[in-house]
Write a structure and sequence with these properties.
Layout (H helix, E strand, L loop, with lengths): L2 H11 L3 H15 L3 H75 L7 H5 L18 H11 L24 H11 L3
Length: 188
């Protein structure tokens, strides 16, 4: 409201200034809020704003905690899966190591030339081998027979005086070994 226009309008109507001031003094306080009530409302507004800020902070923290909990659950599931896989792989590696150890031990017992044990062991499919209660290879002779035929010179016999060496100047061989070699070469 423009007080200047109101004042000039009232004065133009012939209203006395004293009457106008009285009227303003009675009407003006109705339009204003007393200072103590205003301050109380401001304090109430500030308190409410503060509570809203606190609640917003708590809400944000709760949202982050929920997200963090979900992330942690997902991470835990991933790590648990990786651990289970590692544990299974470790069991397989351990079993494979036991099979290789049993194979080497049993090849030495089968009189394989010491310098050819690894070469002979390479002819076996370790994954197919099974261990018995004594951690020896089950039916080892069944697996050994075809290898013995194909790699006869790698096995020491009673008639073998010296194990074969790299320059090809090996010792004597038995008739059985000679026959196996001829068969392998397609000569008999």
């Amino acid at each position: 409201m423009d007080f200047l226009k109101l004042l000039t309008g009232k004065l133009a109507e012939g209203v006395k200034v004293e009457d106008l001031v009285k009227e303003i003094n009675t009407e003006l306080p109705k339009s204003f809020i007393p200072k103590d009530k205003y301050n109380a409302k401001v304090e109430e507004l500030n308190a409410t704003t503060g509570k809203m800020g606190e609640l917003q902070t708590k809400l944000t923290a709760a949202a982050e905690a929920t997200g963090t909990a979900e992330t942690l659950k997902a991470d835990l599931a991933k790590v648990t899966g990786e651990f289970d896989t590692f544990k299974a792989d470790t069991g397989k590696r351990e079993l494979s190591g036991k099979k290789i150890s049993a194979l080497m031990r049993q090849l030495a017992g089968a009189k394989v030339a010491p310098d050819l044990v690894k070469a002979v062991a390479g002819a076996f499919d370790v994954e197919k081998l099974e261990l018995n209660d004594k951690e020896d290879i089950k039916d080892f002779d069944t697996y050994l027979a075809p290898v013995k035929l194909s790699m006869a010179s790698a096995f020491l016999t009673e008639s073998t005086k010296t194990p074969p060496i790299d320059d090809g100047a090996g010792g004597e061989t038995s008739d059985e070994e000679d026959e196996a070699i001829r068969k392998a070469m397609g000569l008999s």
